[in-house]
User: What shape does this take?
Amino acid sequence: MLNVLIRFARKVVQNVMQQLMQNFNVVQEQAFSPMQAMVQQVTDGIWVGQGADAFVEEVSSIMMPGVGKIGDQITTFNRNIGNAVDVLDRADETVNNVVNGLADLFGGIF
Assistant: This one.
């Protein structure tokens, strides 16, 4: 019964991890990449002057690093969840080995 619950929990956690990475992709595709493209267009000369310089500075120094931090946090959180799953898997394996060892021991006695 416990093994079934652990497998179910693992599937739920894997689903959460997949959703996190989908969110990471959304952050990259819908926030960071478009900002990067806009900055590139402005630096290529589509817009010139003090306003253009201020725009590039603001987006490059505030917005893009902020979005990058969000992506980094999603990645770190996902990695930490993966590490937690690994710990649970090792614990489950250890418990199964102990139970099997005890079963063998008691089976040898009877």
Notes: The chain has a mean pLDDT of 90. DSSP finds two helices and no strands in the chain. The radius of gyration is 25 Å. Residues 10 and 66 are 32 Å apart (CA to CA).
